[in-house]
Predict the structure of Bifunctional NAD(P)H-hydrate repair enzyme.
Amino acid sequence: MGHPPIKRYFAAEQIRVAEEATGRLLADGVLMRRAASGLAGAVAAELRSRHGAVYGRAVTLVIGSGDNGGDALFAGAVLRRRGVAVSAVLTAPDRAHAAGLAAFRSAGGRVVDGVPDTAELVVDGVVGLRGTGPLREAAAAVFAQVRVPVVAVDVPSGVDADTGVVHDPSVRAEITVTFGARRIAHALAPAACGRVEVVDIGIDADGARVEMLSDRDVAEGWPLPGPASTKYTQGVVGVIAGSDRYPGAGILCSAGAVAATSGMVRYVGSAAATVVDHFPEVVVAPDLDGAGRVQAWVVGPGAGTDDAALELLRRVLATDVPVLVDADGLTVLAHHPELVVERHHPTLLTPHDGEFERLAGRSPGHDRLSAVRGLASALGATVLLKGKVTLVADPGGEVLVNDAGNSWAATAGAGDVLSGIAGALLAAGLSPRVAGAAAARVHALAADLAADGAPIGASELARAVRPAVRSLRAVR
Ligand SMILES: NC(=O)C1=CN([C@@H]2O[C@H](COP(=O)(O)OP(=O)(O)OC[C@H]3O[C@@H](n4cnc5c(N)ncnc54)[C@H](OP(=O)(O)O)[C@@H]3O)[C@@H](O)[C@H]2O)[C@@H](O)CC1
Ligand SMILES: [K+]
């Protein structure tokens, strides 16, 4: 099998431009016919996998006022001709796609008032790229009764294509069938979209600014020692975390760093003795003056927010190596943003929502993509906004997304492990955006492997970092 390429996600406007560029060369309606035939194929495949057959099964379309409904109606006509009992609920009867409705009717499709009890699958053709806000009343009333799997056309209705904001109410789909290229919502709202299938309709979208690394990308970019490697070529990361009162953060952050690469970890801080007890391979120093050279710093987890912490942060950010600031470091930074704004070397900030609010002066809200881009641009630093879906934005607006796919990492100390992993990757020379996204992927996978169905603490997560890297490398 070939290398699955990095996944790219496009804004509605970029899709429209691509469609227009191709559409001009084609007869009217060709793109919609292609979309509909791909959609019908996906629905048929789903019927076959669930019920062993296509012929004789029952599908209901829910149709809105635009081309999204047109796609569904033309697909319904195709399915009808394959022996599926297809019915359609029109949520805006006067504005349903005229040609689609005519094709649907002439293939024997029935228009009904509500989803019949016999329906085995529902197709959501209410609204697509032009959708705004939650499902409107008529469609919301229909979907409130739906108890069978939903195949969404393009995007689940009520989910904003460009921001991934999941409005209430909105459709929750088992499968989303999209056309030509992925939409941003598919990366940001994975739970609402379910499995995403892309139908080739012969368009070429360009200039994606939201991307997701494949497992293979992460594995291939992961620093591994080669024949000419030394601990220095693999990167020396300095960890400034924890305190004698809270040594745990220093241990967990060091654990992430030690496990992530074969380079070297230095630790600076008052938890030095405890850290070295846990990891004899860590070279410790009580303060920055005795620390020795590093290729990247991680500063902040459990490190306090007092004047000494500020002074330490100021000195670290004044170096010319990449710096990751997390946790307490972010709280300090919220009062002194100039320390980052005026810095011209790679910088990665890794806030959770509360720390984001301290830094940005407002919570990320529902539109997390705009929020993280805004903060990265304002501070001139890469920002990793933690969550089940983690977003890593560069100041220029380029974003890498990671869908954890599980919530096992929602446990105390897990963030310290993440910053250790990402710091080690920075020390190995990865850019802040890729280091953040790759660390988030391995962290989520480690949480899943460690949990294996039962809750874990962060120490267990840290122990699973190596198995996680190994399992990514096994992906072919
Ligand atoms: N272009 C192409 O070449 C191809 C396009 N393709 C397909 O076209 C789709 C885009 O179609 P589109 O542009 O007709 O808009 P669409 O999303 O159907 O919305 C229609 C209207 O719905 C309304 N509305 C808004 N929000 C709403 C809500 N929350 N709940 C309910 N209603 C809501 C709003 O009208 P309003 O009522 O506000 O006047 C809006 O104008 C695209 O997603 C893909 O499926 C494919 O065939 C491939 C080729
Ligand atoms: K839809």
Remarks:
- Residues 64 and 92 are 6 Å apart (CA to CA).
- The chain has 19 helices and 19 strands.
- The chain has two domains: 7-210, 215-473.
